[in-house]
């Protein structure tokens, strides 16, 4: 087809579906841990990065399996089956109704869901990691030696399919997650968000197998990584055996492998180890980079996602692939040529150093943003403390005095104070005074660590009051809002919200909080009293707020209400995350692309797979660093953790710059050519000696 083997189109479609499956599942994973399995932020982050690390460790297993035993085709098919099973198990594990026997909306057997989820993730890691080094190489095998141009075009199409799958899935699956589904109770639709990627993985497998008869299948030829490891192992063992002073020193410790391995392999291994030594600081970059899917996504849950249409927190990850598509051609076509015109020697290792610095600055930006988010976050009572808010539901001002002489507060009509913090042990009682009226209210029995609202109303001959328990001790999750109703009417009222009955409230009683979606949506409030019924459309509540709505009275079939803000809506917009994404993406462009290019230019022709394995291993180690820090960190503020990561990468950046300054660039092809020429000369000398010996024997 236009000079291309038809088989490669099956491979490109296969890669698109597989990347859609992987990135779609990964986009919603940390929120699944937090909101479905109810893990805290640190545990959710740790397990997320454990999974990602495993995904980047298993490619070594896949490469050995393909090169030494099964071949690429059988490895891809067998591990894709494992992959599909894993996606299916994860999807089944996220079905709430699987163990919700009492139909209360919460799983009765959380351990079952955790077990299925972890099993599914382990199988996915084996599958996606195992096929990672095989698919692109298998596609390259389909071309003849004289099809260099077509092969290059194929790899462009291949990586386009990778980015397309990532981009589309990061848009689609968070929207699927945000929908509600369920048999008995409606919940966030994680089964669908994981189920669609499972279907795409099955399609990926079917498409790949469908092209089986067209593929060129290269037989396993042994894995060079194993040869390198054996060479290094033998050199170390041989050096240890000959450690006494009677044995002369050798120029390089790898030269101790001369007794068993040829000089070319040893020279190639030396070149590889020089590059792998430079890889040692690189995991710190990946430790920061992969937090887009964990810490940064969790950060977005506390922000305002109104972009005209509601944007889900996990959809902010799409900024990275969009910026990649923009920045790669901009950097290649404008930035690098401009630097070259300025006669600056911007070597690959300098580019990698700049990439690390930019990633460090991205986390400084994330820390500054987190400080602004924390400023708008509500303060909840600590141990030994209780918070009380005063709410005047009447039309007459009043003064509230806390006993014994703790505080005196004036409260205007239809107004409420902010939450005030008291030591629980000091709370005894309070008194409300308005004109000649006064009422005392006991505060004994209030619980520490809780919030309360003292609601009161001055009547003509009395002061009615009630202490309301505010059972909200954290900001609403996923940008949702909480609202409740308090009856300041003289008679009993029935409250209906969006056609659903909420509560029947006696005077000065409050309903439980009702969860409503975040955004600009308005809600219809209907009330019914013994005398009349009336209605009104609510205000727009934004994201992450909690309100108490006072039902006052009706005027011409319209209900009069007053809003009291219990928890303010998220006011910091998600768009403020774009600067940190921009800095991190710029860092990725000059770090990742340059790093692979540098590695390939410095690697011997037959050992590029060893450096690819080392590169993937650096990603895995970076994720392990995150889970260690998330598990061991004693920092109570998230901004402080961002600063810690930024500082660590900055220090590593300086260390890498020093290491890079001692590195000498080599031309592997030239070195290999010298060895080949030397080998030919040695062979010629051996032939000459052989002929001379043969002539001597005849004489």
TrEMBL record:
- One Gene Ontology CC term in the entry: apical plasma membrane
This protein's source sits in the domain of life called Eukaryota
The Swiss-Prot or TrEMBL record describes its family as follows:
Belongs to the major facilitator superfamily. Proton-dependent oligopeptide transporter (POT/PTR) (TC 2.A.17) family.
Q: Which organism is it from?
A: Tachuris rubrigastra
Describe the reaction catalysed, as an equation: L-phenylalanyl-L-leucine(out) + H(+)(out) = L-phenylalanyl-L-leucine(in) + H(+)(in); N-acetyl-D-muramoyl-L-alanyl-D-isoglutamine(out) + 2 H(+)(out) = N-acetyl-D-muramoyl-L-alanyl-D-isoglutamine(in) + 2 H(+)(in); L-lysyl-glycine(out) + H(+)(out) = L-lysyl-glycine(in) + H(+)(in); L-alanyl-L-lysine(out) + H(+)(out) = L-alanyl-L-lysine(in) + H(+)(in)
Instruction: List keywords of the entry alphabetically.
Output: Cell membrane, Glycoprotein, Membrane, Peptide transport, Protein transport, Symport, Transmembrane, Transmembrane helix, Transport
Ranges for the region named Disordered are: 676-699
PANTHER family in alphabetical order: OLIGOPEPTIDE TRANSPORTER-RELATED
Q: Which Gene3D superfamilies match?
A: MFS general substrate transporter like domains (1.20.1250.20)
The residue ranges crossing the membrane are 43-66, 73-90, 110-131, 152-172, 192-211, 271-289, 318-339, 351-371, 610-630, 642-666
Please give the name of this protein: Solute carrier family 15 member 1
In the UniProt record, the gene name given for this protein reads: Slc15a1
* Role according to the record: Electrogenic proton-coupled amino-acid transporter that transports oligopeptides of 2 to 4 amino acids with a preference for dipeptides. Transports neutral and monovalently charged peptides with a proton to peptide stoichiometry of 1:1 or 2:1. Primarily responsible for the absorption of dietary di- and tripeptides from the small intestinal lumen. Mediates transepithelial transport of muramyl and N-formylated bacterial dipeptides contributing to recognition of pathogenic bacteria by the mucosal immune system.
PROSITE patterns to which the protein is assigned, alphabetical = PTR2_1, PTR2_2
Q: Does the keyword Membrane apply?
A: yes
Gene Ontology biological process: protein transport
GO molecular function annotation: oligopeptide transmembrane transporter activity; symporter activity
Entry's localization field:
Apical cell membrane; Membrane
Q: Does the keyword tRNA processing apply?
A: no
């Amino acid at each position: 087809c236009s000079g291309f083997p038809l088989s490669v189109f099956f491979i490109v479609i296969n890669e698109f579906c597989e990347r859609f499956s992987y990135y779609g599942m990964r986009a919603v994973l940390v929120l699944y841990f937090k909101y479905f399995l109810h893990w805290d932020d640190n545990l959710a982050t740790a397990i997320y990065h454990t999974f990602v690390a495993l995904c980047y460790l298993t490619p070594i297993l896949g490469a050995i399996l393909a090169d030494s035993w099964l071949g690429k085709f059988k490895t891809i098919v067998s591990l894709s089956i494992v992959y599909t099973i894993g996606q299916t198990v994860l999807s089944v594990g996220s079905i709430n109704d699987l163990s919700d026997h009492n139909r209360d909306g919460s799983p009765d057997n959380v351990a079952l869901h955790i077990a299925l989820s972890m099993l599914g993730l382990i199988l996915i890691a084996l599958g996606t990691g195992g096929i990672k080094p095989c698919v692109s190489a298998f596609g390259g095998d389909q071309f003849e030696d004289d099809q260099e141009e077509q092969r290059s075009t194929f790899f462009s199409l291949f990586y386009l399919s990778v980015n397309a799958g990532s981009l589309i899935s990061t848009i689609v699956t968070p929207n699927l997650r945000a929908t509600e589904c369920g048999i008995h109770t409606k919940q966030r639709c994680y089964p669908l968000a994981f189920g669609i990627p499972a279907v795409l993985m099955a399609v990926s497998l079917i498409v790949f197998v469908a092209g089986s008869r067209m593929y060129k299948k290269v037989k396993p030829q042994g894995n060079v990584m194993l040869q390198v490891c054996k060479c290094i192992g033998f050199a170390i063992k041989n050096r240890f055996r000959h450690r006494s002073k009677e044995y002369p020193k050798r120029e390089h410790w790898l030269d101790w492998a001369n007794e068993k391995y040829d000089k070319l392999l040893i020279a190639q291994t030396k070149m590889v180890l020089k590059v792998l030594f430079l890889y040692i600081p690189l995991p710190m970059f990946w430790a920061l980079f992969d937090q887009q899917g964990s810490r940064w996504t969790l950060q977005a849950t506390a922000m305002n996602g109104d972009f005209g249409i509601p944007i889900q927190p996990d959809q902010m990850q799409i900024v990275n692939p969009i910026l990649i598509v923009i920045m790669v051609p901009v950097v290649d076509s404008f930035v690098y040529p401009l630097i070259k015109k300025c006669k600056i020697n911007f070597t690959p290792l300098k580019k990698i150093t700049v990439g690390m610095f930019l990633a460090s600055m991205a986390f400084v930006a994330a820390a500054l943003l987190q400080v602004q988010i924390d400023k708008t976050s509500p303060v909840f009572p600590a141990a030994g403390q209780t918070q009380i808010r005063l709410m005047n539901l009447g039309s007459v001002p009043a003064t509230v005095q806390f006993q014994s002489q703790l505080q005196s507060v004036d409260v205007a009509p239809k107004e409420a104070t902010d939450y005030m913090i008291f030591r629980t042990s000091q709370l005894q009682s309070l008194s409300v005074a308005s004109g000649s009226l006064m009422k005392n209210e006991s505060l004994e029995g209030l619980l520490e660590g809780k919030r309360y609202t003292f609601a009161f109303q001055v009547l003509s001959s009395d002061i009615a009051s009630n202490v309301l328990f505010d059972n909200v001790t954290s900001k609403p999750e996923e940008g949702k809002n909480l609202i409740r109703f308090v009856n300041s009417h003289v008679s009993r009222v029935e409250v209906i919200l969006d056609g659903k009955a909420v509560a029947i409230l006696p005077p000065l009683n409050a309903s439980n909080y009702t969860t409503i979606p975040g955004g600009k949506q308005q809600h219809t409030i209907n009330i019914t009293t013994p005398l009349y019924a009336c209605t009104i459309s609510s205000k727009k509540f934004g994201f992450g707020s909690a309100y108490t709505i006072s039902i006052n009275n009706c005027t011409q079939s319209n209900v009069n209400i007053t809003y009291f803000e219990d928890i303010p809506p998220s006011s910091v917009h998600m768009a403020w995350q774009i600067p940190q994404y921009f800095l991190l993406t710029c860092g990725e462009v000059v770090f990742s692309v340059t790093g692979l290019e540098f590695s390939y230019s410095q690697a011997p022709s037959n050992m590029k797979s060893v450096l690819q394995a080392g590169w993937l291993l650096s990603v895995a180690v970076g994720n392990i660093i995150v889970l260690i820090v998330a598990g061991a960190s004693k920092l109570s503020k998230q901004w402080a953790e961002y600063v810690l990561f930024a500082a660590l990468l900055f220090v590593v950046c300086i260390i890498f710059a020093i290491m890079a300054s001692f590195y000498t660039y080599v031309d592997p092809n030239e070195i290999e050519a010298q060895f080949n020429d030397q080998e030919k000369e040695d062979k010629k000398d051996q032939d000459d000696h052989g002929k001379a010996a043969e002539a001597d024997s005849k004489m």
